[in-house]
Write a structure and sequence with these properties.
Elements lengths: L10 H16 L29 H11 L7 H5 L3 H22 L2 H5 L3 E8 L2 E6 L7 H15 L6 E7 L11 H19 L3 E5 L14 E5 L2 H6 L3 H9 L15
Helix pairs in contact: 2-4
Length: 256
């Protein structure tokens, strides 16, 4: 029985697949890859990611160093100087080190992790960074109370936790800039769903991960965690939220 060999994708096909997965992640769609053929289905053509061998560049450099050129004299070819030998060795070592840096997966070198609480309620979107990647019910309750205070209790608050990276696949982009693009795409989608006027950023850390799409207003208040720990900060938050009031309501001074 002949063992089936999985081919390796060429550079063009792999770049096209990376672009497809990135677009899916911006749309908040988890990219899926089939691992086996369902019963009765036609066999799928699967391939592995291209990986350049670590020895390729070093072998090419060594071959260039040994091959004599037409301009070299017999004496230089027969007895190279110590200086040229040291320089060639140093060049080969430097190029090998550079090759090792390129061979390291980009996702591993630039990978970052962050989590966001994202809430849509009424005319506003609420975003907060979760430093420990844990979402507490008290945080959700406080955001719902603030949203009801400025938008009205008749507008339900929908919340979700956004975790980056969205996949642990080392071949997918996991850098900060791609994560920010994914957050911006999700914010635009949430804005279209509720026709939000702007975004309320809760805490100082969230701005690093949350770019505000063009055309949306931006307001900043303390994070829910700090307001839960220090209730007096809710007074500062209300000073920012009160001008956004769309229905008569009482100030948010107690909360949860």
């Amino acid at each position: 029985m002949t063992e089936q060999v999985t081919p390796t994708a060429d550079a063009i096909d792999w770049a096209r697949e990376q672009a497809r997965r990135r677009l899916l992640s911006l749309l908040d769609v988890e990219p899926l890859v089939s691992r086996y053929d369902p019963p009765g289905a036609a066999p799928a053509m699967r391939s592995l990611a291209p990986i350049a061998p670590a020895e390729t560049i070093s072998e090419q450099n060594n071959s260039r160093a040994v091959r004599p050129t037409t301009h070299q004299t017999t004496s230089i070819t027969a007895a190279p100087s110590l200086t040229n030998t040291v320089a060639s060795t140093k060049s080969a070592t430097t190029q090998q080190a550079n090759h090792n840096e390129v061979a390291t997966p980009y996702a591993e070198v630039q990978a970052v992790q962050f989590s966001l609480l994202m809430v849509s309620a009424g005319n506003w979107l609420w975003v907060e960074s979760l430093p420990d990647r844990l979402l507490r019910q008290a945080q959700v309750g406080l955001v719902k109370a603030m949203a009801a205070a400025i938008s009205g209790a008749e507008h339900p608050a929908n919340y979700r936790q956004f975790d980056w990276p969205m996949s642990d696949n080392p071949h997918l982009a996991r850098d900060l800039e791609t994560g920010r693009e994914s957050v911006a795409g999700l914010l635009m989608r949430m804005q279209r769903e509720v026709k939000a006027k702007g975004v309320i950023l809760m805490g100082d850390a969230v701005s690093e991960f949350c770019p505000i799409p063009q055309g949306l207003a931006q307001h900043a208040i303390p994070s829910t965690l700090t307001m839960i720990e220090n209730p007096l900060l809710k007074i500062d938050a209300w000073k920012t939220l009160q001008p956004l009031l769309s229905v008569p309501n009482t100030p948010l001074t107690k909360g949860r």
